[in-house]
Amino acid sequence: MTTFSVDPNAVLDMAARLLGLRDEFDNAGDAFEGYDGAVGFPPLNDALESFATNWSDKRRKIGELIGEVAGAAQAAGDAYGECEGELAGSFDDAATATGSGG
User: Fold this and answer.
1) What is the tally of structural domains in the chain?
2) Which of 14, 42, 57, 66 has CB atoms 3.0–4.6 Å from 22's, for a disulfide?
3) DSSP assigned state of 39
4) Structure confidence by residue, pLDDT tens digits, 51-78
5) What is the pTM of this model?
6) Is residue 51 part of a domain?
7) Residue 35: phi, psi to the nearest 5?
8) Which span out of 14-18, 25-29, 30-34, 91-95 was modeled with the highest average pLDDT?
9) Hey, is 41 helix, strand or coil?
């Protein structure tokens, strides 16, 4: 028999950490700002600009994906916690009904 165990609080903690990571991505700003023209070699400057633009776009997309995963983790943690609470309540009700006294 396979045992399946989930700690709802750990899943919710993971969701919170992912949201923090997403916020870091969202607030990272442009790491290459201010270097325009400072390189002194036009092909290198063009390559740096291209990389910076690409990185900004990818960073934004990564932040969105992290947010989606965080939302899924939050929903899962909430669902596991609710299920756990319902099961505990059912066991308590069954124990009371049989006179075991919980």
Assistant:
1) 1
2) 66
3) S
4) 888 888 888 899 999 999 999 999 999 9
5) 0.71
6) yes
7) -95, -5
8) 14-18
9) coil
